[in-house]
Amino acid sequence: MKYLLRVCGDCARYSLSRECPECGKKTGYAHSAPFSLEDRYGACRRKLKQEQGLI
User: Fold this and answer.
1) How much is the pTM?
2) 19 is a domain residue
3) Cα-Cα-Cα-Cα dihedral sign, residues 40, 44, 47, 52
């Protein structure tokens, strides 16, 4: 029951279905990924963000 709540990326409306009832596009999980101090992919993720100019 943890991952029932979903959110639309375009209109930011929350729903329980895989499609947004407002705009009809796909929804994603509303919960963030679990946090871990032993982040195996952290260096790769930071490098990718730096290459994209987000950092």
Assistant:
1) 0.53
2) yes
3) negative
